[in-house]
Fold histidine kinase.
Amino acid sequence: MRAALGAAAASVLALSLATVWVGDAAYQQWMPNAEDKALREATLLNEAIRPREDRPAAPTDPDAPPWEAWLDRLIEGGYQQSAYALVLEDGSWAVHDRIDPGKVDYLPPLTTRIAGNADLVRIHLPDGVGYDIGMPVGPNPTDRTVTFLRRTEPNRGQDLNALTGRTDLADQWVTTYIMVNPVEAKAARAEVRSILGWYVVPYGSLFVALVAWAVTGLALRPVEAIRRRMERIGAGAFHERVPVPAARDEIAGLAVTTNRTLDRLERSLIEQRRLVTDAAHELRTPVAVLRSTLEVALAHPERADWREVVERSLADTARLHRLTDDLLLLSRGEERPRQAGTVDWGDLLGEQLAERAFGGERRIRVLELRPVTVPGTEQLLGRVVDNLLDNACRHAAERVTVSLRASDGWAVLTVADDGPGIPAADRERVFERFVRLDEARSRTDGGTGLGLSLVRGIAEGLGGSAEAVEPSAGAGAELVVRLPLDTSEPAPAQSDDHRYTATPPPAATSR
């Protein structure tokens, strides 16, 4: 409806302007004909002043005005009785017809004396002066500003005396003013505007509105199909997709983008349901163990070792706390975290290694440790390092190696262990939630199955990546995390003073 009304309004405006323009064009086309007719009659006026030898020089009636014979000659020559005036050199009117003389000085004689010279002049008639146009096509015009065709010819004094009835006129130039009749041109303009205004403008605008209605309806038909399908999808049919029109236009692009968005939403929904299911499954075991421990102790309080009960309950509670923390961090890791600042990842890794050395972990060896600054927060980056070291220490036989370096605009953290390793077919699957590959990676070994999933989620949220690669040592497992280097500040100089090779981390200090 809006498109049709807009098209109708635009067409009314355009056709109305065209009506005015075409009417004026018709007027301009007719006016040269009127000018040619005025020039023809001005020539007849000047020729009729000179009587021929085969005509009587004066009318037969001695009481008739002298110009009646002259008028008869005009009519015989084809004159059509237009409004005219003949002006002598002194500014007086020799003769006129269908125009009131009034103030005679508003039609001055032509100063440039060139025989047969003619031009057009626009003259505003003074008050008290009226005019009439012979043989009108329509109503007599009432314009106060009119167009005269002006023409000059030399004439003999005797011809002028015979015309005017005077006896004192000498040979002189006579200026002829004949009104250019605009009646036919105005009638043509009015007729054209009437036809266009009463028929073309309304019916043409209606036609344009109907075409706009039909074309817009056809263009919006795919949108309506998309809307109906979205209603079905919103009602629960998340596997369905909106139809893509065959035309390669904006609506087809909208449908393709909508389907891509629905794909991502469906994957997110599946992941959410899977997370809830896996989380409920993982929480059942520690909750069941904790409940059975407490129920047995309460059923036989006299035989329960309450210290052991509390210690076991505390251990299960700590595991539940760690699991809920991982789930919360994992859910937040679905979105790209807001980068509030940057972190010196090398310094953070050094602190983590020192704490583990202070806690008695002596299997970790640092191959390379360079100061690198990456975007993120200490909480997120610390969790990445902690999860990687926990995973490596949990499965290492004798040694865990760590390196942190900068390469081609990336900070690269590598953590490897000499444990049973990760089969090539499972190197992508280990980053899924609650995945344990074998008995060594079981719940009794302390893992929740969320550590590596958190590592990848945090890395990708910070614009990086995490992957399991072929171990460079030929055995064990090797995990690599890449994060973009922060370019807002110049990177610290990389010197060999910061490189550690096959040595334990420095002794821990109190934090």
About this structure: The mean pLDDT is 80. DSSP finds nine helices and twelve strands in the chain. Residues 230 and 242 are 7 Å apart (CA to CA). The domain at 339-498 is CATH 3.30.565.10 (Heat Shock Protein 90).
